[in-house]
Amino acid sequence: MKRRLAIVILAGVVAGLCSGLYQAGVFGISWDFPGWGAGDFTWPLVAARDMLHGENPYARTYPYGIVSYPMTTVIAAMPLVLFPDAWAAGIFIGLSTALLTWGLTRDGRYWPLWMLACYPFWQCVQVANWSILITAVALTPVLYPLLVVKPHIAVPIAITQITWRRALVAGALVIVSLIIMPSWPAQWIHNVQAYAGRPAILLPGGILLLLAGLAWRDLRGRYLFLYSLVPLRAFYDYLLLFVIPSSRQSLMLLVIASWIQYWCWYLFPKWTSVGLIVFLFLPCLGEVLYPLAQRWISHYRNPQPTI
């Protein structure tokens, strides 16, 4: 347990420091949008401050492509409003990474920590994105109510891990947000029209992902099938794919493939969509279909006798 806690704390501190320093411009890189000092955590942070000052958080105007979050996200950001933007983002990423690391080591195995080496994880750190926290929920179901902070990419987890108790607690958080601001759903839906995400099945070759439905009885098959239907936008949204590999070798290959995809995007941006399918989704598809194929082959070679 001591070793596990040490790894959890170390991962959280390193990721949090890297994210905070990046947002603060220490690495010599700044955001294209003026005042966007906490990365993707900026909108919830600013919205939380607006709420505390009695202002409408959905009345602000942001650059095209930057969309607002649900009121549940704003409530989650409130404890960090007293910190400077960059360090609020760093604390958020540090805590999210700590929870993710705890989930990765839940079975006493440490090879799942290779997930922390993939490119989508480090883009999450770079832009202070919520996908780290959502992936942590996928690995630690007791955190299920936190899915309401970013519901659109959380749909596969919400469906595959739902229980009545978890649904009731998550629903209670939504009810609290409605009590605080009853009109937020309508205003949020209006603001998210600028979201430019696309489901993976609409990418070139993405239709193949529907084959994951053949493994519907497998939790990973259901998860991949549903995930292929969710609108995704940037590399950070693909971090949730890294819960699918079931062995050290398959996870390491997916990590390496994620960096290959990054360089393909950097060198050949027109081929980004194809690369996402080839390097990220198809390996996951192979992972969920391989056991099914093995059972079919075994049944073909050793058919059950009939009466």
Topology:
Elements: H1 2-23, H2 42-52, H3 71-77, H4 85-104, H5 119-127, H6 131-139, H7 151-160, H8 164-180, H9 184-191, H10 219-227, H11 248-267, H12 272-301
Fold and architecture overview:
Helix content is 56%, strand content 0%. The longest helix is centred in the last third of the chain and has 30 residues.
Count of helical segments?
A: 12
SSE succession? HHHHHHHHHHHH
Major sheet attributes: none
Structural class: mainly alpha
| Mean of all residue-level pLDDT scores | 88
What is the CA-atom radius of gyration, in angstroms? 20 Å
Q: Kindly estimate the percentage of residues that lie in beta strands according to DSSP.
A: under 5%
Separation, N- and C-terminal Cα atoms: 54 Å
Fraction of helical residues = 55-70%
Weakly predicted, low-confidence segments: none
Number of strands: 0
So what's the overall shape?
globular
Describe, in short, the structure shown.
This protein has 307 residues and is mainly alpha-helical. The protein has 12 helices and no strands.
List keywords for this structure.
mainly alpha, 12 helices, 307 residues
